[in-house]
C-alpha cells in the first residue's frame, strides 16, 4: 500500500494505516507527523521542540520573546538557530518586497494579542528594515516592535530536523509544512471549498510543500486579493513556508510580478472562485498529478 498524506493548512493527517513507524506529536501549537527509519522519530521531535523553545513568541523564556522585550532598548544575543531563521526571514522579505515581514508581530502580538498598542500604531512599526543584526545580536530599533516567526518557524523546524537526523529517507510535517525525501509518497492538498482533496500527487524527487490560507483563522495579514489558498513546492522548507505566506499576502499584481521573476519556485494557487493555477515547476516535482476540481 502506498503512503498517503493530506496537507491541511492547520493539520496534516496521514491517510494510510500501514505505517507502524509513523508517529504524531504536539508541537508549535499544532501537530507534527514524523516517519523516520531507525527509531529516530522522537529524536527529531525533541530537536524541533528545542527550536520551538527558542523561536516561540508564546514562551516568555524564548529568545524571540527576549528580543521583543528589548525592542528599542538594547540588542539581544541569540543562538545560531534563531539568528539563522531571522536572516532567512529578512532575505525573503527583500525578494517579496515586504509581503513577508516578521515585524508584523507589532500587530499580531502587541496590538491584537496583548492590546498594548492600537492597530494603527502597530502598523507604523511593521518594517523588516528596522531589524538590525550585528554578530550574534538582534536589535529591534523602535519600542513596541515585535518579531513573529509564525510564517516561517514551522518550515524552518522541518528543514533543520531533516538536516539533523541525516536519514536516507523520511517524512516530517508540522501543520501545513512538510518534507519528504529518499522515497515516493502519495500526497494530497486540502480543498477548503469542498472540504475534500484538491490535488493528489506522487513525488518523483525530494520536495518540501507548504500551504497557506486564511479560511480557518485569519492569521495572515496582507493586501486584498483573489486567492483562497497557496501551496509552494521547493527544495527548502524554510523557503516554502515563508514564500507561501508571502504569496498569499500579496496583491494580485504583486503576485504576478513575483511569480514571473521566480519561476524556479513551484506554485499551486486556488482562487476564491474555485479556479486553479499551477506552474510547470510545480509539476516537475511529481510523476503523477490528479486535480479534483
TrEMBL record:
Any Pfam family matching the protein: ApbE
GO terms assigned for molecular function: metal ion binding; transferase activity
Named cofactor requirement(s): Mg(2+); Mn(2+)
Swiss-Prot/TrEMBL catalytic activity: L-threonyl-[protein] + FAD = FMN-L-threonyl-[protein] + AMP + H(+)
Keyword Transferase: yes
EC number of this enzyme: 2.7.1.180
Keywords in alphabetical order: FAD, Flavoprotein, Lipoprotein, Magnesium, Metal-binding, Transferase
Catalytic EC class: transferase
Binding positions (Mg(2+)): 151, 241, 245
Database matches in SUPFAM superfamilies: ApbE-like
Keyword Metal-binding: yes
InterPro entries on file: ApbE (IPR024932), ApbE-like_sf (IPR003374)
Cofactor detail note: Magnesium. Can also use manganese.
Domain of life: Bacteria
Family, per entry: Belongs to the ApbE family.
Protein name listed in UniProt: FAD:protein FMN transferase
Provenance organism: Hydrogenobacter hydrogenophilus
Amino acid at each position: 500500500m502506498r503512503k498517503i498524506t493530506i496537507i491541511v493548512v492547520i493539520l496534516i493527517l496521514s491517510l494510510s494505516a500501514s505505517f507502524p513507524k509513523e508517529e504524531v506529536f504536539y508541537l508549535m501549537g499544532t501537530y507534527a507527523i514524523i516517519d523516520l527509519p531507525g527509531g529516530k522519530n522522537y529524536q527529531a521531535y525533541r530537536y524541533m521542540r528545542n527550536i520551538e523553545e527558542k523561536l516561540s513568541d508564546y514562551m516568555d523564556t524564548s529568545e524571540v520573546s527576549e528580543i521583543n522585550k528589548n525592542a528599542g532598548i538594547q540588542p539581544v544575543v541569540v543562538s545560531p538557530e534563531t539568528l539563522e531563521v531571522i536572516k532567512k526571514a529578512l532575505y525573503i522579505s527583500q525578494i517579496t518586497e515586504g509581503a513577508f515581514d516578521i515585524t508584523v508581530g507589532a500587530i499580531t502580538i502587541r496590538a491584537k494579542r496583548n492590546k498594548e498598542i492600537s492597530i494603527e500604531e502597530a502598523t507604523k512599526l511593521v518594517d523588516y528594515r528596522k531589524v538590525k543584526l550585528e554578530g550574534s545580536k538582534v536589535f529591534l530599533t523602535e519600542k513596541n516592535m515585535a518579531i513573529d516567526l509564525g510564517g516561517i518557524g514551522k518550515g524552518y523546524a522541518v528543514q533543520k530536523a531533516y538536516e539533523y537526523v541525516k536519514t536516507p529517507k523520511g517524512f516530517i510535517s508540522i501543520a501545513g509544512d512538510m518534507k519528504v525525501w529518499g522515497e515516493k509518497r502519495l500526497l494530497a492538498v486540502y480543498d477548503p471549498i469542498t472540504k475534500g482533496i484538491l490535488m493528489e500527487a506522487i513525488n518523483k524527487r525530494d520536495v518540501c510543500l507548504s500551504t497557506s490560507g486564511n479560511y480557518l483563522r485569519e492569521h495572515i495579514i496582507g493586501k486584498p486579493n483573489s486567492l483562497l489558498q497557496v501551496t509552494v513546492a521547493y527544495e527548502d522548507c524554510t523557503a516554502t513556508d515563508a514564500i507561501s505566506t508571502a504569496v498569499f499576502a500579496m496583491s494580485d499584481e504583486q503576485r504576478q510580478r513575483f511569480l514571473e521573476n521566480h519561476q524556479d519556485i513551484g506554485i499551486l494557487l486556488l482562487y476564491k472562485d474555485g479556479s486553479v493555477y499551477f506552474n510547470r515547476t510545480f509539476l516537475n516535482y511529481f510523476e503523477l498529478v490528479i486535480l479534483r476540481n
